[in-house]
Amino acid sequence: MFQSIFIKEWLKIKSFLLFSILTSIIILGYFAFKLNFEFSTIEPESMMWYRFVQLEQKPYFDLIFFYLIFGCLFALFQFLPELIQKRVKVTIHLPLNLVQIVFSHIFIGLVFIIFYYNFISLSILAICAHYYPEEIVQIIFKDTLAFSLISIIFYILVSALILEQNKKILFLKALILVLFLFVFVKEQFFINDFFILFTVLIFSPFILLDSFYSVKQQRLKIFYKVGFFIISFILLSSSFLNYKENYQKEFYKYYIFYSDILEEFVYQKNFGEHRFEYGIKDDRTFLQKEYESYLPFVYWRDLDIQKKLPVTINEKVFTKDEIKDSKLGFDYNYKLLKKQETELYPLFNPQTNEGMIKFPEEFFGIFKDGAKIYDFDNDHLKEDSKELNKKLQEVNFSYPVKNIWGKTTNIKPFDLGYLIIDNKNRLFNLKKENNNIQIKEIEYPKNIDIVYINIAENKQQNLSGYAIDRNSNFYLLTWDFEFIKLDLKEFDYKKMRLKFIADPVNYLIRYDDQKNYYAVIYSKNDYKKIKEINFKD
């Protein structure tokens, strides 16, 4: 039986398979040409690594649609003739086990599909291996594996749709297919994604088997229905999380500022559709122009155009330059907690005799077996890597690294390097300057567990950023990485957004979970809390 089915399937799809291979050679050739062109027209070439790792711009991502198109067309070539020529009814009425017949068709289809996807995936890996470090190539392998699994499931589900006879159930299965694509057509794949993929892959043949049974006006029994419900629930939940994380538009109900003129918090309430309310909580409301007049440090550019600067507040004069030079802002969003797929970072090397920081040729990473430095022309720089490992050893660095934070762009006035937490929760500052790598330990409160650090180099050279610990405590970082704790009531780093704003007089911190909005004002001189407020939506 199996041999007969194999010959029948081969005769149906051999021309399509040959055409697909020829088409893929053309597409892969274009991909190789385009990748070579991108690397040869950018300087330095390591910018392409930066795009891949930090910006998540993967040059091969669009090829996932080629995988999917092949899976869809393969299903059409395999099962549509069976349906049109009514061979399905003949097949299911043969004195043979229907389960064996269906799974034989799936197995034969998978043999051809896996062969084809292996050809595509290995070709992509071979092309990319000429341009990327091995740590990135490992990510490419993971992604092409995910592309293959997604497309195999897509092939099976499309086959089920082709054979399904009941329109209502056809709609449900089509919905499952749409949810599946919505969840898994994306740039990054993690362990839980592969768990869901393998779960759906194991169950999907039964969806196809159920479609075969529909030709006989029959259905699979209770275990299939329970499984279908579970898969539907998993995909619905994943779709909701995917929408919330990647597609839901952020909305701020309140914008809260502190007016040094009124010595009160003032707010702008957003009703949507460009409708706003301005006022002081539980006191009064006012027009937009009056609201702006109370915030000269926010609307100082308008005052400058209107020739109303300098401005005097509480008998102190503030000039345009003083206001402008005092402006500083940091942002936090819980989405920033997501780690990179691979721990590779640009190793900046500012020179004291040059005014601008160039984007570096070199990238570094600290892995379980030690640190590595790469550049495009020489790949793994063994001597430089040896030097970095030696310096890490001198400070008794403990592997593996827990986290690395730093600003990975050269659009900054200075480079403070990276802050690194080792396996023993010791904090180190790593940077390269004038061709010399420097590593030093940073003292910080030992009773805290740091979950996030933001480094934001700025011309003021007073604050370097902020840190957040696992108990949602917030710390400002001085230029020398001293931790200054600020009290933020009800702050939860796992679900809240935060914005830090500096002006000539105070520090303002706003944070919210889109339901509860908080604002706290601190003195710039001693970091003491002056006043706080909260709004509930």
UniProtKB/TrEMBL annotation:
KW Transmembrane (keyword) present: yes
InterPro entries: DUF4857
Pfam short name (any one): DUF4857
Keywords, comma-separated and alphabetical: Membrane, Transmembrane, Transmembrane helix
TM region positions: 16-33, 60-80, 101-132, 144-163, 170-189, 195-215, 222-243
Protein name: DUF4857 domain-containing protein
Organism: Aliarcobacter butzleri
